[in-house]
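Lay summary. Proteins are chains of building blocks that fold into shapes, and those shapes determine what they do. In this project we predict the shape from the chain. Here is one chain we studied, written as its sequence of building blocks.
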Amino acid sequence: MSKLQYGPITVHMKEKRGGRIEFEFTNNESKNLYLLNYHTPLEGIRSCYLSVKHKASGEKQKYNGIIAKRPPPTKGSHCMLLKPGESRSTTVNLTDAYTFPHSGEYTIEYTRPLVYFTEDDMKKHSEDSPLPYHPKQHEFLPLTDPLTIYMGATPHKPRDEEPKRAPVDNVVVVNGSGDQEKVIRDLHREMVTIGYPMVIRAVKKNSKLYKTWFGDESYQSHVLSVYEKCYHHLSNDVCKYQFGGSDCTGNDFAYTIQGTHKVFLCGLFKKASTKSRFSGDDSKQQTLVHEWSHAFGFTDDDGGHGYGSHTGQELAKHHPGIATHNADNYGYFYCDVMLEHHQN
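And here is the predicted shape, written in a compact code that computers can read:
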């Protein structure tokens, strides 16, 4: 068993059979605390919150699970109440997101900050109102006491990939109606003919928008590299869009897996406007840029909970290094550049 503690909530990790790990969260305070479930085992494996290493070689195993775009969390749906001294546990299966190429011992460390709210914090929000990110929110990184487990070698799970080159049309749309397919093809065409070339220029030429979404200009080269990778792959490779997916929930716009050429489009995507109507709009356009920045630029959903325009701008102001790795920021900057283009 591994015990992690740095802050008012303790995390216990315990090995189960077959790559299953039990996580127990305990409130050590004398008051109620609300633990945000985004990016934690409380929602399964939907983000990278663990470091998994082969003990003998030190080789770190890559996270191969999904990364989803979703709205900012709300008080009523995305926080777990922990009363004083109370513990809650959940179990996840590491093989859902990690491949174990060698039989032997692996070390597991909890590496992602936890976010919690107090009763006073919660009184400021209604059940369905978003919980905005704030740089002074209650966030802490548990001190890591590694858990060692034994795993037999697991086979590599092949990804559902298309050929790298497309002779004519590099867009594949699955399970969509005729109208839905047209929307996807139009957005994709705009991305490669107008959108990304314009956005790549704007990174250095539109200082106002850059500072709004990324802050410190010393990170420009990294921001450029993410957009350029997306532009290259979207222009040259076969890219697949699938309506629906086994990991879609009612709280998801879309999801992808880093290093792949496929985006799964979920329920909130279908309800979103096609293009952003205003700055910070979570449109279909913004969602696609968000997801491709994950797939090709290896961005994350960082900074507390990482979602929404308020969070994105707060990160740019206070944590630009995190903002430049946050997928929503790439989507919002892209859409703001396009809004200015169409308004002019």
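What the prediction tells us: The chain has two domains: 9-151, 172-343.
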